[in-house]
Write a structure and sequence with these properties.
Number of domains: 1
CATH class: Mainly Alpha
Number of helices: 18
CATH topology: Na+/H+ antiporter like fold
Number of strands: 0
Shape: globular
Helix content: over 70%
Oligomer: single chain
Distance between the termini: 67 Å
Largest sheet: none
CATH architecture: Up-down Bundle
Strand content: under 5%
């Protein structure tokens, strides 16, 4: 009976997520907005003990938690592999300005908000960890969601699109480092165990990565990628043992995986990404939303949500805009990048789940922060459209790869 209910639950979750994704795409929103929203809706329905006992008993919930954890490992692997230092070439000043502005101001405002919440609304067990976590959560930008929005808007080959992706990659890399520190502080990890992270990263960068690079010429297909999965899950297990959560090991392994220009590797990573988005992430959304409870927020809770939403949006927009302007960008492109950097999406949910699991967030604040992630992502499209109406073209010059330029020249002369 357990297997039967689990299979039915998975079918319902995936179907609902896909229908919601299609529906929101028709109104110009990224599919993840609908998928997160339907996850929150299903989670709210399953708050009823009577319904939950029938459709998702404890053993089925445990199985879905395991599936969601696997999806989380694979998703963070693809996020890590999206990081590409080559985006920095020739535009380090602009990317640095965007990354610093989009990280520092949201982090500072988030910390200030957390201090106020700790003094007036909450009584965190460790105020320092609480403040650092909220600041980190406010500074997140969802690189995968941002990349999808850029692609949907036809900005992939423009300077705005490239700079936004590079800036988001730098912001998220910084945020993951900050989150690792927060998790270590919250978990009371022994210092000697935490220090093992440094040699582990060195082994990945100077040991595992060269071995994988040497193996690329003999890459034969699925069997080779199966070995990548072995390394990926071992990496996630190592950082879990180190007390830093499995997401860090998965992210690091994706970041050091070579072969971004190898068509076979690229195609197989894309297949993993499609599996995550079409099947595993919807399950993660519902599992994460099971801990969302909006029923008891009341007027005070809605005021907190409004405050956090204003701080999150203002911090990202103003910080990223000022950073982009300091990097030499004009008003329109700087504004567009600031709007794009405000998208938090699924990456924010991953961070919030970590905060809930380590006890930094309670259910009330977790629920508010999930809604903030949903609203900020949904605002991206309308804000871009509004900015374009007010400022005119925002894309900036097209950025063309040399090989593409050569093909265009050859086509023009024949």
């Amino acid at each position: 009976m357990t297997n039967l209910m689990m299979l039915i639950d998975i079918a319902v979750i995936v179907l609902a997520a896909k229908l919601a994704g299609v529906a929101v795409r028709r109104i110009g929103q990224p599919a993840v907005v609908g998928e997160i929203a339907v996850g929150v809706l299903l989670g709210a329905i399953l708050q009823s003990n009577e319904i939950t006992r029938v459709v998702m008993p404890g053993d089925v919930r445990t199985a879905l938690d395991a599936v969601a954890a696997i999806g989380l490992v694979l998703f963070m692997f693809t996020v890590g592999h999206e990081l590409d230092h080559r985006f920095l070439r020739g535009k380090a000043r602009a990317v640095a300005g965007i990354a610093i502005g989009a990280t520092v101001l949201p982090f500072v405002l988030g910390c200030a908000t957390a201090i106020w919440l700790a003094l007036t609304r909450y009584d965190p067990a460790d105020p320092v960890v609480f403040v650092l976590f909220v600041g980190t959560a406010m500074s997140i930008t969802a690189l995968p969601v941002l990349a999808r929005i850029i692609s949907d808007r036809g900005l992939s080959e423009t300077s705005v699109g490239r700079l936004a992706i590079a800036g988001a990659a730098a912001v998220d890399a910084t945020a993951w480092v900050l989150l690792a520190v927060v998790v270590a502080l919250a978990g009371g990890v022994p210092p000697w165990q935490m220090l093992l992270l440094v040699p582990y990263v060195l082994v990945l960068v100077f040991g595992v990565r060269p071995l994988l690079s040497a193996a690329l010429p003999w890459w034969t297909g699925k069997s080779g990628f199966g070995l990548i999965f072995v390394g990926l899950f071992l990496s996630a297990a190592i950082t879990e043992w180190l007390g830093l959560h499995l997401v860090f090991g998965a992210f690091l392994f994706g970041a050091i995986l070579p072969g971004r220009d190898n068509q076979l590797v690229r195609r197989q990573v894309d297949e993993v990404d499609r599996l995550c988005r079409s099947f595993l992430l919807p399950i993660f959304f519902v599992v994460a939303a099971m801990d969302v409870d909006l029923s008891a927020l009341g007027t005070a809770g809605m005021a907190e949500l409004l405050l956090i939403l204003v701080v999150a949006v203002a911090g990202k927009l103003l910080g990223a805009y000022l950073g982009a302007r300091s990097g030499g960008l004009k008003h329109g492109p700087a504004g567009a990048i600031a709007v794009l950097m405000n998208a938090r999406g699924v990456t924010e949910l991953v961070v919030l789940q970590v905060g809930l699991q380590i006890g930094v967030l309670d259910t009330r604040l977790y629920s508010i922060m999930v809604m903030m992630a949903l609203f900020t992502t949904a605002l991206t499209g309308p804000l871009l459209a509004l900015l374009q109406r007010l400022s005119g073209p925002i894309a900036g010059p097209e950025v063309v790869a040399p090989e593409v330029l050569a093909q265009r020249l050859n086509a023009a002369t024949t």
